[in-house]
Amino acid sequence: MKQIKIIMISILFLGSTLEAQNKWSAEFRPGINFPAEDFKGSNIETGFGFEVTVGYRFMEHLHTYLGWGNNTFSIEDSNMDFEENGYTFGLQFIHPLWISEDLSYLFRLGAIYNHLKLEDVNGELIDDSGHGLGWQIETGLDYVIGSNWSLRPSLRYRSLSRDIDVIQNQTISMDLNYLSFGLGVSKSF
């Protein structure tokens, strides 16, 4: 009788351990950013950045995610650059495609809590907008390459509005809207 209890407890423990595997994921996503509009008469050049996120699968195809990212843009014909960085969080839906069990589509909808830093060419801070809320939407693919590793090419649209003091307390409202193409590398555990 004691052996049966031990076996039952072992089966329950093993079953719950197996079910809990691969609920967490970590992703590193470098990207190239294409601004959707100009900045007060100046052209914003293509930007570059990266993001690091951690995700948790709480339903079969539904995950939450939380992360931090940094994106840098130059302003054409100007001695200024700006940097957007801060936090991202939201929900992601990953569902296998009928083509292959290793290929899934990915959809994310979330918020960002970022700030904009305006800097001169020497990297000296001109102004920091302070953190504020924005939003993002993303779609892409999740391709399993083995041993719980995935490649995640995706296209994202991100929007953030903040006020910045440029010269002698002249405040301008800056709307940063851009498309970002990234290639994430993800590990689930």
UniProtKB/TrEMBL annotation:
Record's keyword annotation contains Signal: yes
Keywords: Signal
Signal peptide feature range: none
Annotated Outer membrane protein beta-barrel domain residues: 11-189
Highest taxon of the lineage: Bacteria
Signal as UniProt keyword: yes
Protein name: Outer membrane beta-barrel protein
Coiled coil: none
Species this chain originates from: Mariniflexile soesokkakense
